[in-house]
């Protein structure tokens, strides 16, 4: 039986990845600081451990796993990433985890680790025009991420790829673009835009106004979690391509359009109250020509399809909480 190690398995994407690996017949160890908050884990062995501690990583990487997925990080939505209040924790916690994982995987003779980077590492100067953002993989340099979160992601990309060059590893690096779906954080300040919009609309009555940070004209693309997992597995198992590569949708929408789409799914008329707040770059959209070329695949599900499933799940959580 093949074995897999999922670091960050108590998180949103990690939880979905564990389910997919189990369907494929893997024995899976999941590791996180916490249990999954929104679903029972399907991991065969789920361990609470602090991956900032080197001895904890030694204990978790105790064999030559067939596949290792490094998703563990200190992260959240715009309200967590862009205020500047959490910069030191974000950089220290995530970088320490990645330094530990890369080095101990190498010393255990594990040849390949998948590392989840982020589109937040792209230069802010290429994302000022909401209509024409440039997020081609080759546009990463000269580097100028708009947040310390993005700088740490860029550093860790270089870390895992340096282990490829110096130690003959075959690590894989992907840049995620706004992954969303059921069983993710939907309240509390670390939720991302689709979940926040779904929650606000689920709690609103038809005719109500919801608050949005900024003018709502900033553009983004959002990728449903099942397609993210598919891209992760395809890249990890690709014998000839290390990345970095975008894993995201190329269906770009404004935040105002996102709100209108969720409101239509909910069958509610929703007004928008634009207020000051952290918004990140003006435009961001996944550019998918490289993943199509290298993997012969790119995400294809429409945003609306994913939002329908996500809104249904979040509406259930809102109703449960109100009871």
What can be said about this structure in brief?
This protein is of the alpha/beta class and 323 residues long. Helices cover 39% and strands 16% of the residues.
Notes on the protein architecture:
The protein is an alpha/beta fold and 323 residues long. The protein has two domains: 203 residues, Rossmann fold (3-Layer(aba) Sandwich); 95 residues, UDP-galactose 4-epimerase, domain 1, CATH 3.90.25. 39% of the residues lie in helices and 16% in strands. The protein is built from ten helices and 13 strands. Strands 3-2-1-4-5-6-11 form a seven-stranded parallel beta sheet, with helices on both faces. α5 links the parallel β5 and β6. α6 crosses α8 and α8 crosses α10. It is globular. It starts with a strand and ends with a helix. The model has no long low-confidence stretch (mean pLDDT 94). Pfam families: Epimerase (PF01370). Keywords: NAD.
Q: Helical stretch count?
A: 10
**Low-confidence parts, pLDDT < 50 over ≥5 residues?**
none
Number of domains: 2
Termini separation comes to 44 Å
Helix content: 25-40%
Helix-strand sequence: EHEEHEHHEHEEHEEEHEEHEHH
What is the H level of CATH, i.e. the homologous superfamily of the largest domain?
NAD(P)-binding Rossmann-like Domain
* Overall pLDDT score: 94
Note the beta-strand portion. 15-25%
CATH class designation of the largest domain: Alpha Beta
The profile of the biggest β sheet is:
7 strands, parallel
Radius of gyration: 19 Å
Total count of strands: 13
Label the structural class.
alpha/beta
CATH topology of the largest domain: Rossmann fold
CATH architecture of the largest domain: 3-Layer(aba) Sandwich
Order the strands across the largest sheet as they lie in space: 3-2-1-4-5-6-11
Judging from the principal axes of the Cα atoms, what is the shape?
Answer: globular
Protein name: NAD-dependent epimerase/dehydratase family protein
Domain NAD-dependent epimerase/dehydratase: 4-248
InterPro entries: Epimerase_deHydtase (IPR001509), NAD(P)-bd_dom_sf (IPR036291)
Pfam families: Epimerase
């Amino acid at each position: 039986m093949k074995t897999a190690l999922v670091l960050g398995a108590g998180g949103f994407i990690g939880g979905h990845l564990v389910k997919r690996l189990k369907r494929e017949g893997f024995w899976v160890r999941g590791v996180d600081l916490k249990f999954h908050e929104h679903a029972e884990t399907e991991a065969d062995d789920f361990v609470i451990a602090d991956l900032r501690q080197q001895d904890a990583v030694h204990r978790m990487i105790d064999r030559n796993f067939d596949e290792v997925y490094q998703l563990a990080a200190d992260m959240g939505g715009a309200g967590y990433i862009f205020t500047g209040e959490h910069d030191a924790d974000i950089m220290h916690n995530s970088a320490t985890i990645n330094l530990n994982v890369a080095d101990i995987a190498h010393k255990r003779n594990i040849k390949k680790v998948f590392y989840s980077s982020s589109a937040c590492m792209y230069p802010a100067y290429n994302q000022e025009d909401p209509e024409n953002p440039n997020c081609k993989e080759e546009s990463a340099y000269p580097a100028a991420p708009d947040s310390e979160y993005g700088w740490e992601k860029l550093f860790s990309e270089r870390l895992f790829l340096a282990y490829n060059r110096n130690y003959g590893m075959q690590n894989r690096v992907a840049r995620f673009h706004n992954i969303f779906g059921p069983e993710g954080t939907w309240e509390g300040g670390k939720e991302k835009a689709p979940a926040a919009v779904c929650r606000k609309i689920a709690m609103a009555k038809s005719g109500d106004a919801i608050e949005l940070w900024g003018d709502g004209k900033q553009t983004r693309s959002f990728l449903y979690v099942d397609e993210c997992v598919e891209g992760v597995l395809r890249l990890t198992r690709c014998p000839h391509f290390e990345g970095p590569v975008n894993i995201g949708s190329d269906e770009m929408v404004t935040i105002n359009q996102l709100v209108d789409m969720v409101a239509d799914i909910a069958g509610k008329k929703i007004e928008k109250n634009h207020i000051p707040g952290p918004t990140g770059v003006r435009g961001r959209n996944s550019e998918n020509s490289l993943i199509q070329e290298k993997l012969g695949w790119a995400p294809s599900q429409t945003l609306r399809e994913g939002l329908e499933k996500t809104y249904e799940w979040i509406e259930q959580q809102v109703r449960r909480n109100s009871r």
